[in-house]
């Protein structure tokens, strides 16, 4: 079986600590509300067939949260969010785990709801680009995960049977979408991102990328 894995980026590989800090300067504690609204907008986009890229959805989610809290410094908040998203840092365990997989001949790609420009920028600034054979984003199909189209696109781009491809993420809904189309799933349990019991469990569950590499190399 081919050793192929695709990786979510935000929260899975990249810490959103800078986004939390940004929101805490404006509306303390609103970072989760913003991210939930962002995902809500992406699902509505899928449902009504009206694709809007993730960066624009992020701005719309920000405006919604600010208005909901009667917060008027929207322009400054938007500028600060742009800066925070441009300066995401990788979780400290990521690079070593990816290196172990690359050393063993694995083919690695991203699969993110973010725009290609945002994905490439983040990979370059965190020095993670060197690990990836492909940078895949939902822009290619204009459907957001967990819609089936992005996962199928990834398998086709990687020229691999979909059932041989691993999807790695810290979001249960992302892995539920991947599993639905036949991918194998690996859940990286980041803090405050539990697994909802409504979903079938993943094939692999780990606490960090070191354990992820160990588990995948054992399959």
Assign the CATH topology of the largest domain.
Answer: Rossmann fold
Query: What is the structural class?
Result: alpha/beta
Mean pLDDT: 96
How many helical elements? 9
Q: At the first level of CATH, what is the class of the largest domain?
A: Alpha Beta
Radius of gyration: 17 Å
Architecture blueprint of SSEs:
Layout: E1 4-7, E2 14-15, H1 17-26, H2 31-48, H3 54-68, H4 74-85, E3 89-90, H5 94-103, E4 107-112, H6 116-125, E5 134-137, H7 148-157, E6 165-169, H8 172-180, E7 184-188, E8 204-206, H9 209-217
Parallel strand pairs: 1-4, 1-6, 4-5, 6-7, 7-8
Antiparallel strand pairs: 2-3
Helix pairs in contact: 1-4, 2-3, 5-9
Describe the model.
- This protein has 219 residues and is of the alpha/beta class.
- It has 2 domains: 4-15 and 89-217, Rossmann fold (3-Layer(aba) Sandwich), CATH 3.40.50.1000; 17-85, DNA polymerase, domain 1.
- Helix content is 47%, strand content 14%.
- It is built from 9 helices and 8 strands.
- A 6-stranded parallel sheet has the order 5-4-1-6-7-8, sandwiched between helices. A two-stranded antiparallel ribbon has the order 2-3.
Short description:
The protein has 219 residues and is an alpha/beta fold.
Keywords:
219 residues; Rossmann fold; DNA polymerase, domain 1; six-stranded parallel sheet
